[in-house]
Amino acid sequence: MSKFLSIIKNKKAISWVLGFQIFRLILLPFMGLMPQDAYYYLYGQNLSLSYFDHPGMIGYMLRIFTEVFGQSIFTIKFADFVITSLTILSFYKLASYFLSKEKLQRAFVLLASTIFISILSFNSTPDVPLLLFWTLSLICLYKAIFEDKKLFWILGGIAMGFAFDSKYTALLLQIGLLGFLVFSNTYRKLLFSPWLWISLIISIAVTFPVWYWNYQNDFASFAFQSSERTSSISEFKISPKYFFGAIGHQMFLLLPVLFLSIITFTYKYVKRALLKFKLPQAKTLFLLAFFIPTFVGFFALTPIYWVKLNWMMPSYITGIILAGMFISRKLLKIQLLFSIVFHVLFSLQIIFYLVPIKSDDTWVGWKELAIETTKLQEKHPNTFVFSNDNYKTSACLNFFMDEKVFAQNIIGLPALHFDYLGDNLSDLDKKNAIFIDSDKQFKDNKLKGKNDPLLSKYFDSVKELAPIIIKINGKEVRKFWIFYCTNYKYKK
Fold first, then answer.
1. Average pLDDT, stretch 46-54?
2. What is the pLDDT of residues 395-419, one digit of tens each?
3. Helix, strand, or coil (residue 484)
4. What is the tens place of the pLDDT at every residue in 102-111?
5. Which ranges of 169-239 does DSSP label H, i.e. alpha helix?
6. Is 107 exposed, middle or buried (CB count within 10 Å of its CB: 0-12, 13-18, 19+)?
7. Kind plus residue range of the DSSP H or E element containing 237
8. Greater confidence, 4 or 50?
9. Dist. CA 199–CA 137, nearest whole Å
10. Which of the four pLDDT bands, split at 50, 70 and 90, describes residue 314?
11. What is the DSSP letter of 144?
12. What is the DSSP letter of 448?
């Protein structure tokens, strides 16, 4: 009888997980192109050992999917969905090493019900492959350490390397591994095992393309990811806005029940370690080693630095397993209620675009902008198009338009990986251009009435044209200022 009840409970858990994934899959065709989708698609179309902002794993994955299924918005979203689904399955395998059947099912549903899984399923970012390889790394390291399977030291090294090839924060895997071994009385002896160091050497070897690209390009990517942030942190200006903003983001991504559960057990374990000098048993310590540095480490920065909402995502993998040890069936039901409400509201926003988004981080209007820009080029032949918002407008127009669209390096500003695409900007010398500037706040249909001073520096004349107004479902939702610029003056 108990075995029968266990099967029924297991089916319920699987049904919940499948329900959330089917819901996400149904929503995929309604999702428009996000700027991040377009930018990392650009990675894949310009293959390189690495890239300026991040390593290239997300670009390689999108390239594979678009080669197999063709270029489309759905293909890009489907790639994110498939990779994230593999992360969910890998999580289930990892969690099974630590939890009883009932708690495993709760953790499985907890993960699948979160908003962060929905974001990863819909939006191309380096976190999509990072979470997969992070989880696979932990599976391999568990088997290498707790089951003494030597092969998994090698596989773990490969997985850790691929995680770093996805995003630099994967370095916390090696830190977590060494931290666990240092603090574990039972497994500290593995610090002297050649297999550990073979694993670490393999993980570094797999990241060689990233290091070599940086070596070829004056370590531009490492400098970009570290210098600005280090200087901001070193200023040490307390900002409650950053702290409470981080809490709001994390509560949204995890939903209140799971977030508060994670905060509770974090406080419990940290307090016990600091005040009683007492560490948990080895398996729990293993989970904490890959949770504390990322979650607590980034949270500790929030009073003085704006920590992006996705930086803590790797910690969720072992964090949710730990939460599964404590969350009751009643709390799980409350979590599911929150999740259903949020996902229904989320789907209504995606399908009907009920609330205008005052930002370029949106999935609406890009295709329509590309159509209107093409018409502008027909009216003003022999012009090139460029924008000045880091990558968003330029990347989205590049996805939809046949002609090359340029970024702010046209007017001498740093332009992320657009600076490394190999474009010879001198070929554009003396050509006319159309400059597109997004009006993020969009309050009226008026002209901007002023030009960017840099435009006058690089062009003989600058004339503002009528803005492009994008309508969705009959409502005006986005506005782009348009400038016609003559006789580009290329400067080295």
1. 97
2. 999 999 999 999 999 999 999 999 9
3. strand
4. 999 999 999 9
5. 171-183, 194-206, 208-216, 220-235
6. buried
7. none
8. 50
9. 11
10. very high
11. H
12. -
